[in-house]
Design a protein that fits this description.
By secondary structure, the chain is of the alpha+beta class. It is about 15% helix and about 25% strand.
Length: about 120
């Protein structure tokens, strides 16, 4: 898909634990929950072995952090017209942020968009 990505869209290359990848186009206004639902509704045929039972357990990991459902791609400042890689996992719940990560966010003023692994 690289090369013909619309300049106002973000191309996400999603990687499963198995190593399989698929690319999807999203708007900067799309949230992690929107992406999870879209991927669930358009689950790739070659991902059949990894099929999940619900969009509510599809989780995105970006730069080592789980994305919360309401975080948009725009908030992450992902480059438009480019490909960004994220991991996709099936997980019932998000891990609690660890206390060290919370203190670091308070010091740096970093937004509370993600959970540190």
């Amino acid at each position: 898909m690289t090369g013909n990505i619309p300049v106002d869209m973000i191309n996400l290359r999603l990687i499963l634990v198995s190593g399989k990848t698929k690319e999807f186009l999203f708007s900067p206004n799309d949230s992690a929950a929107d992406i999870a639902k879209h991927v669930y509704d358009n689950w790739p045929m070659d991902w059949e072995e990894e099929q999940v039972s619900s969009p509510n357990i599809v989780r995105l990991i970006y730069q080592g952090r789980f994305l919360h459902g309401n975080v948009t791609l725009g908030v992450l400042k992902l480059p438009l017209g480019k490909t960004t890689v994220m991991h996709l996992v099936a997980r019932e719940t998000l891990p609690e942020p660890n206390s060290q990560g919370q203190r670091n966010r308070e010091k740096t003023g970093e937004s509370n968009c993600c959970v540190i692994l």
